[in-house]
C-alpha cells in the first residue's frame, strides 16, 4: 500500500462522508478504500472511522477529526508539488 494512495482515500472519505462515495470519486473498489483506511489505522495505532449502522455513512472518530485537516493539507501540498514538477518538466522539454 502506498501511503499517498491511502491518505488520498482517507481524504476522499472525509470529503464525501462514506467509503462507497470515496471509492467512486477515486475510481477504486470500496474494498480498496477500506484496506487503505485500515492500513492507516494500523500504522498510526488509532481508529479513524466508525460506521453508522443507520445510514451506512462513515463518521470520523475523535482521532479522525484531529487528523483530517492535516491529511487534507498534506494531499493539497502533494498536488501542488505534482503540478509544479510537471510544469517545470514541460519547460525543460523545450
Number of beta strands: 2
Annotated CATH homologous superfamily: Winged helix-like DNA-binding domain superfamily/Winged helix DNA-binding domain
Query: What is the CATH architecture descriptor?
Result: Orthogonal Bundle
Total tally of structural domains: 1
SS summary, helix count: 4
* N→C terminal distance: 36 Å
Mean of all residue-level pLDDT scores = 91
Fraction in helix: over 70%
Briefly note the CATH topology name: Arc Repressor Mutant, subunit A
Spatial shape:
elongated
Beta-strand content estimate: 5-15%
**What integer value in Å does the Rg equal?**
15 Å
Main sheet overview: 2 strands, antiparallel
Uncertain parts = none
| The top level CATH class name | Mainly Alpha
Strand order of the largest sheet: 1-2
What are the secondary-structure elements, in order, as H or E? HHHEEH
Query: In terms of structural class, how would the helical and strand content be classed?
Result: mainly alpha
Amino acid at each position: 500500500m502506498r501511503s499517498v494512495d491511502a491518505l488520498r482515500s482517507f481524504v476522499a472519505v472525509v470529503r464525501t462522508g462514506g467509503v462507497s462515495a470515496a471509492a467512486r470519486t477515486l475510481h477504486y473498489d470500496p474494498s480498496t478504500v477500506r484496506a487503505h483506511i485500515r492500513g492507516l489505522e494500523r500504522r498510526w495505532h488509532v481508529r479513524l472511522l466508525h460506521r453508522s449502522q443507520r445510514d451506512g455513512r462513515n463518521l470520523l472518530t475523535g482521532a479522525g477529526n484531529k487528523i483530517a485537516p492535516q491529511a487534507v493539507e498534506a494531499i493539497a501540498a502533494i498536488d501542488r508539488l505534482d503540478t509544479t514538477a510537471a510544469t517545470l518538466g514541460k519547460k525543460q522539454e523545450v
